Amino acid sequence: MAILVIAEHDNRTLKGATLNTITAASQIGGDIHLLVAGNNCKGVAATAANIAGVSKVLLAEQSTYEHQLAENMAKLVLELGKDYSHIISPATSAGKNFMPRVAALLDVAQISDITAVISADTFERPIYAGNAVATVQSLDSIKVITVRSTGFDPAEENGSASIAEIGTAHDAGISTFVSEEVAESDRPELTAANIVISGGRGMGNGENFGLLENVADKLGAAVGASRAAVDAGFVPNDMQVGQTGKIVAPDLYIAVGISGAIQHLAGMKDSKIIVAINKDEEAPIFTVADYGLVADLFDVMPELQQKL
Ligand SMILES: Cc1cc2nc3c(=O)[nH]c(=O)nc-3n(C[C@H](O)[C@H](O)[C@H](O)COP(=O)(O)OP(=O)(O)OC[C@H]3O[C@@H](n4cnc5c(N)ncnc54)[C@H](O)[C@@H]3O)c2cc1C
Question: Which residue range forms the structural domain that includes residue 294?
């Protein structure tokens, strides 16, 4: 049994979700090969070779893989994946884009967003916005799996895998990369941050998010938001945490002016410590909070900043 894991990267750095995905693969057991598909990404492959548990890095460097277009990635993963028992990717935007195509082309059912490995063919995954956990068994000959990275610890980086170059250049010819707009921020990325402070509709407007940013800068935290705050136009939608936003599980999550709707909890309830600040003591966020402060955020946020 050998497992093919697809690395998440941007041709310069290997993304942390890859490390959690390797841990999931290790729990399945067997030889783990890690595919780094991109362009000018030898540095990523070198980093990948250090991940404990990986025996071989497959480096596919072609211009057609530079932006990981799903159509081209699916063809590459399909070609390589035929010889593996499991094909696994992080359940990130990229993985969610090409993995269903791989599953469809292999004519197998994808097992999405797993949070635990029970055995080589049985996995746990959240359903109903995280309100229940389903145990699913797959009888398919090749298991195509996406991994919810918050369910697994990152793998150590003390390995020494070999690197093999893959020559094939797939170009499905049906999509081209046009441009991308990447939000630049000095703060840590939301899904990778150890501390996240999020604001909700209670913030009142976008300017007031400055109160959270001041505290975030003191703590080295990322800033998130509820969907109500995003829909109201306070902040951009890449800050949204929840069922239809980003899933985070930092060491510390601070929810400010957020009521705690189930769709928000679905994105943050696995955080190790949850702090809620809300002026309504009946707010459901307090049912998941380790520490709750019933207070007006406009009083306590400046005080918190000052104390920090
Ligand atoms: C299919 C679907 C998917 C969804 N996906 C998501 C998702 O991914 N993420 C998400 O967040 N939501 C999602 N939602 C929306 C979700 O149901 C809630 O509407 C949303 O989370 C509410 O955001 P909120 O807590 O900021 O706003 P509200 O529910 O309006 O809560 C605002 C809170 O702020 C408090 N407050 C107000 N003023 C102050 C003050 N001065 N000081 C302290 N506290 C104050 C209030 O007491 C209140 O509890 C989804 C909904 C649906 C139907």
Answer: 190-307
Whether residue 303 contacts residue 215, with contact meaning beta carbons closer than 8 Å, is answered with no
Strand partners of residue 38: 61
**How many domains does the chain fold into?**
2
- Confidence category of residue 292, pLDDT binned at 50, 70, 90: very high
Distance CA 3, CA 27 (A): 11
Which residue has its alpha carbon closest to ligand 1 atom 26? 200
Measured in Å, residue 99 CA sits from the centre of ligand 1 at 32
- Calculate the alpha carbon distances from 305 to 82, 200, 209, 235, 291 in Å: 54, 18, 13, 21, 17
Please check whether residues 7 and 150 belong to one and the same domain.
yes
| Contact (CB, 8 A) for 215 and 275 | no
- Whether 180 is covered by a domain: the verdict is no
| Ligand 1 site, residue 198, Cβ cutoff 6 A | no
Residue 50 sits in the same domain as residue 138: yes
Report the pLDDT averaged over residues 7-32: 96
Q: Are residues 26 and 136 in the same domain?
A: yes
Q: Say if residue 214 is in the same domain as residue 145.
A: no
Tokens 């991109």 found at: 38
Judge whether 269 and 293 are in contact, CB under 8 Å: no
Amino acid at 237: N
